[in-house]
Amino acid sequence: MNTPKPLMCIPLITLLVAGILNTVNAQHISCENLLAIVKAIAGDSTMRTIKAEIAKEAMGDDSAQYFTSIPIWDYLDDLHGEYIEYDKALGAVVYNGYSINRATLTDERERTIKAFENCLGDGWIIRTAIDGLGDTVTYFKHPADYTTLTVKNHEGWMRIKCYHEPKNGSPVCVSGDCYNFYGGVQFFNNDAYTGTFIDGTLSGVGHANWFATQKQYQGSFLDNQLEGYGAIYDENNHAVKKGFFFKGDTVPLDRHKTGCQYGDCENGFGVKLTSSEFFVYADVYIGYFKNGLPEGLGESVTGWGNTETAFFGHYRKGIADGTGIFINYNGNITFGDYINTIAQGNYLTAVTDKTVIQGNYDDHSLTYFDANGILTKSGKQLLAFVENTDPVYLDRKATAKSLSEFYNYRQTGYKEILNVQSKSLKSPVFESYKSKRLFQGRFDTNVCSDQHHDLYIIVSLSGKSVDKPAWVKLYNKYYKMLDKALGNQWRVTTDKGIAGVEKISSSIVFRNIFDLSKSIELLIDKRGVQLEIH
What we know:
By secondary structure, the chain is of the alpha+beta class. The chain folds into 3 domains: 12-164, no CATH class; 171-352, no CATH class; 391-533, no CATH class. It contains 6 helices and 37 strands. Helix 4 (391-411) crosses helix 6 (468-485). The chain is flat, with a radius of gyration of 30 Å. The two termini are 57 Å apart.
């Protein structure tokens, strides 16, 4: 077996010779050695047991490199090598393997991935993604011991990295708002959570999927733990644990008995029951305490049966004070802020039919949004709801209706729009035709198809006019209108600001946080003012 080589500058003539010699040859992964490397990393993230003598001294910001006692390849004639170093970007000690076989680099990468799959066996999460350098990377991750392997091509080299991912690696928010609303997160080990959040913690109600065991949990969470009522289901969706959870496991709870039943209800984390107004069932509080009173994150359950409600949020000196989530007996979830148990200012109510109500406790204003997060009506409610009749609002509502219609058509394959026309798209690439359905025929509206065969709408707001001051006025009008017509499900991803005579080019792009394929762009340039709805 050849002596392993450290990474170093290699003369051009060597590269050329290596490429010529290996037009048909390819590297072979040693399965026995690969498993030995994985075992060493899983047992010791510093890789002390497989480090050999030093290959390169640390210089400046560079880490020291070490030879390895276990090579990853059964070598042929290609240019190759392995070394171990501390990778600052990953924050871990990394086993690096590299090879150059320019004639068959893509094939070699594919063979390496196949060899990894055959050698490592089941239980590994395998994913392919594009990294920050634009390179395609295939990840192999083990959910039990956090061992990670990557394979990618970069600048004519095939590179392999093996390392131990830190267990405290942050989860990734994959949809929604994962701070103080509703969203979904993905963890390193492929565990997933979808539900409500308070100050970035898994708190409220949600659904967890555990990749390694294929089990699921549906129910209450508090400060990233299973706390409160819920159920765990096995891979066949059969309930294996159901009831009241405390610190991640079920415990018996007597709702006819008041007082502290679990944990530390003085200065710690515990479960305490207090008599309710009619004392049919005691009210339950689970969470943090200080001097015998709820203080910090906590959960309260009151009522029973069809009248049961829950509150998750911050407490101060025994009363709700701060960000909180109230869940009524119908399952509607309200996100808001509380001062001395009184709800204050703006709030959001997510209704079980996926619509959202945005309101304000101070001025009694209410705005209703459909399942796509687009405005349906707005007004005030004291004794009864009264919808706004202001002309600006009615114009905004008409625009919102057309946006909503587009997404309704999208769900049914645009049949309602296509049937209006006597001819359909001739080509799936950038063809378009008129549609009078949207925007009530007020603007020149086209249904187009892009290179991905996805239909989208282009609305020419400025039409054939060449009056640039009028363009600017029109753009700024819709700029403000869209901000009011779209609810909290939409986020501004690009905002170049309002337009002006000196700034004729500008745009704003909204993207749906629950469905990234949905986007709305308003732009003004030398062609006029356009609205694109994807």
